[in-house]
Amino acid sequence: MDKMLLGRYINGDSLIHRMDPRAKLFLSFYFIVIVFLCNNWQTYVLMAALVLLFIKLSDISLGFFIKGVRPLIWLILFTVLLQIFFSSGGNVYWQWGPFTVTDRGLLNAVFVFCRFVLIIFMSTLLTLTTTPIEISDGLESLLKPLTKIKVPVYEIALMLSIALRFVPTLMDETTKIMNAQRARGVNFGEGSLIKQIKSVIPLLIPLFVSSFNRAEDLATAMEARGYHGGEGRTKYRKQEWKQNDTIGVILFIVLTAALIFLRS
Amino acid sequence: MSIHIEKLNYVYQSGTPFSHRALTDVSLDIADNTYTAIIGHTGSGKSTLLQHLNGLLKPTSGSLTVENNKITAETKNKELNDLRRHVGFVFQFPEAQLFEETVLKDIAFAPKNFGKSDEEAEQIAVKMAKLVGLPDSVLQKSPFELSGGQMRRVAIAGVLAMEPQILVLDEPTAGLDPKGRLEMMEMFDRLHKEQHLTIILVTHQMNDVANYADHVIVMEKGRVIADSQPAEIFSDPEWLKAHHLGLPQTTAFAAKLQQQGVPFKTLPLTEAQLAAQLADMMNEQGGGLRG
User: Fold this and answer.
1) Which residues, in sequence order, are CB contacts of A129 under 8 Å at separation 6+?
2) 0.80 exceeded by the pTM?
3) Contact, B67 vs B247, CB < 8 A?
4) Nearest-CA distance from B56 to chain A in Å?
5) CA B26 to CA B3: how far, in whole Å?
6) Which residue has the higher pLDDT, A231 or A26?
7) HSE on the CB side for A22, CA within 13 Å?
8) Please, which residues 53-82 of chain A have a Cβ atom closer than 8 Å to chain B?
């Protein structure tokens, strides 16, 4: 449980930390889009160099980013294996029934792997350098135009910030209840599959009960302090677009041009 | 069952930038059939220490021996099960662990896990429900229909149903009303005296320490800073104050009387001791007057 990096902020005062969360959010999403422009070595090297530069600028050790890959490693391996065994075209190295290993398949597998790692590194960078509250504030202000077409942006942002806020709380609660049930003789993650599924019940039911109680308490506390929806609500944190953010956006425009030029 | 802890260190999330040392060189002994209170500030490492006692955490270095089970950093998780069978653990706000459809089933959950048959487990559950003072009428109800105090009793019965030899209590009376608190502490005292359970209690209530414990361990910043009897710990109000700990009500009252010139030989811990000492003094004085 402790090893989950998603949604975990590391305090710091680096160039990346100081960027406007709106810029970081937008550029992270934009990055995921342009990763799909990459289709040869030059483009991947360029992207990797850029990500490494950002990581360097964030003053956070690379180890954290590598750990961020770990929870998704099975998904990545699965996709990579699909690429290796089910691609067609190019020189065939090995064939057995529906499985073929070709040089293009191998190359694609490497690219898919790189794509995953780049995307994970970039989104880890966002969550490590931006507090959850900044992320949801940023999202709210990016989505603001959608209020024109009656999208409940304030509510979505509030739900998001509450959800993010309660991730650590729920994880603590999970550890606590797991410990309590372990002390009563439950062995999580041991025994047959049926047994393992059964062992989740004594964990899930108390978690649901406490989440509902917590939600009710939270709603009461918010209403008691005068919350009445997003309309006309002022903000405690001001978001400022600075020169660095503009530079970041320009960098990404140049990058896009370079990618289009380099891709084959 | 006795507990022996030697040079135990524990580091949370060791090897990451979040690593945080919770226990430093903790060595202590808890004898069989004793009532030990562990006191100290929030964050002093009490809860971390407790979690070692039934193998929820393994020491980063050092060792812990419960009877013949020695737990070190290398102990395999499978071997911890045997330890858990003997050590019952009542967590803070234990009512959070309830999940079954009926009170009876919830209490019978632990014995079933430890290999008792359904009938045996239910027999134990009925017995334990009685022991913690739950009326028969609630046994077939859902635990979520009960009041907070009753839910806590169900949870405690669920732990006692494991028939442990050591009972670990982490602030078992937090959030209860004064009557519930007294009833619960009296119940643990009965278990200690009648069923000869070794009890380890973490508490902020100095009154409970004075009234029930025969061994006190004081923790601060992950270290044991005192390990002795209640009478000795509470005989030094200055030291307690320096470590941000209070006195039991009775002792505080006696300390004030002492400042007014009442000559206590030793500071009393309980109301009974206070009354006895005062009576003695009055008798002596009375004797003096008559003579």
Assistant:
1) A9, A10, A12, A14, A16, A17, A19, A24, A58, A60
2) no
3) no
4) 7
5) 13
6) A26
7) 15
8) 61, 64
The tokens describing A213, both together, are: 């109680």
Percentage, residues of chain B above pLDDT 90: 56
A212-237 mean pLDDT: 86
Do residues A211 and A170 lie in contact, with contact meaning Cβ atoms separated by under 8 Å?
Answer: yes
The CA distance from A261 to A264, in Å, is 8
Whether A10 contacts chain B with CB within 8 A: yes
| The one-letter amino acid at A37 | L
Average pLDDT, chain B: 89
Place of tokens 């209640």: B230
The tokens describing A117, both together, are 């790692």
Number of residues in chain B? 291
Domain boundaries, chain A: 1-130+239-264
Edge to edge, the sheet with strand B215-220 lists B87-90, B166-170, B198-202, B35-40, B215-220, B223-228
A-B C-beta contacts closer than 8 Å:
60
Residue B260 corresponds to which amino acid?
Answer: Q
Q: Which of residues 25-54 of B touch A (CB under 8 A)?
A: 51, 54
Q: Is B174 on the interface with A (CB under 8 A)?
A: no
Percent helix, strand and coil across chain B, each to the nearest 5: 45, 20, 35
Helix residue ranges, H only, B132-268: 148-160, 178-194, 206-212, 230-233, 237-242, 249-259
**SS3 at position B207:** helix
State the best of A177, A179, A184, A204 to mutate against chain B, taking most chain B CBs within 10 Å.
A184
- In sequence order, which ranges of A59-192 are alpha helices (DSSP H)? 62-69, 73-86, 103-129, 132-143, 153-183
Task: For chain A, give percent helix, strand, coil, nearest 5.
Answer: 70, 5, 25
Domain positions in chain B: 248-291
A99-102 vs B3-12, strand pairing mode: unpaired
Question: What value of ipTM does the predicted structure carry?
Answer: 0.85
- Give the separation between CA B172 and CA B212, rounded to whole angstroms: 14
C-alpha span between A196 and A155 (Å, rounded): 37
- Residue among B13, B144, B159 whose CB faces A184 most closely: B159
